[in-house]
Amino acid sequence: MRPTPHYKSSDPTVQATGTQAAIDRQSKLDLSIVIVSWNVRDLLTNCLRSIDVNRGGIQLEVVVVDSGSTDGTPQMLLADFPWVHLIDCRENVGFPSGNNLGLQRAQGRYLLLLNPDTVVLDDALTKMVAYLEDNPKVGVVGGKLLNPDGSVQSSRRRFPTLATAIFESTWLQPYAPRALLRRYYMNDIPDDQITDVDWLVGACLMVRREAIAQVGLMDEAYFMYSEELDWCRRIRSSGWRIVYIPDARIIHHVGKSSEQAATRRHVDYQRAKLRYFYKFHGPGAGFSLRVVLLLNYCWQILIESGKYLLGHKRELRRQRVQAYWQVLRTGLRPAGY
Length: 337
What we know:
This protein is of the alpha/beta class. It has helices spanning 19-24, 41-53, 73-80, 95-105, 124-134, 162-167, 178-184, 209-215, 227-237, 262-281, 283-309, 314-330, and strands spanning 6-8, 31-37, 60-67, 85-89, 110-114, 118-120, 138-146, 156-157, 195-196, 199-200, 204-208, 241-252. Strand 2, helix 2 (41-53) and strand 3 (60-67) form a beta-alpha-beta unit. The longest helix has 27 residues, at 283-309. It starts with 5 loop residues before the first strand and ends in a 7-residue tail after the last helix.
């Protein structure tokens, strides 16, 4: 059961209202930014400062859902960012559930899901809002994600096939047919070109309120990973376009929350992948992928054990075997199934 959030805001009457009533609520605000944060206080501080500096002429609000942080994040927000609406959860509620709490609180015409480990550059916010204003059939826009060194971070995707899922983010990825992952990551299209896509990485997603009213909120059966894939698929299936606009630039420090729990990351990632395939491709595809993934972890345990016996970086091999074994013990049952 999701814990009851404790609200701390400049508005003492704030509550988590029903989904439809919240999504349908009208407001003079142009934009609501929803940030789900877990133990990344310093990165969140930089993110909020970048929003404040680069808001331009947009009337916006920021809702931070703190997902049970123990690093003093709620106290920092109340002391240093009194203009931020804080939803203070007592435990880690997961990424989609946290975003849904924020979306239900948000009042803007457009809603931006933004990771706490991002930095908004220049006029990225105004450019995304303007694009939605000028293109009423577009339901979602996302900007160009950059690594901290300024290089382009992959964020555009086509929908995955079963073959994609078998190779992508597994030890088999280096052996995947080049055309398979090239197509999935949209490497056949220049990253400085405005492009219609199937889905976008969820570090920065600006969504039209009407699109959310039509398809609903994020699927909370996911804990982390694939929730934006699922959401974008539902939005696209409802007739909305999803567009990548490279002129809106955002720095993204990848995985600063998830890297705090490496084994849990493996489990959440693969269970989310399996849920997506069971949900959209059927039980046959989902079961086949589950078998392949379980065999994949068995094989990795054998490889790491062999390297351990040969005396190669034994502590690292021990940690990996332990992590992969813990993944196997879960059975990789799809989230929600």
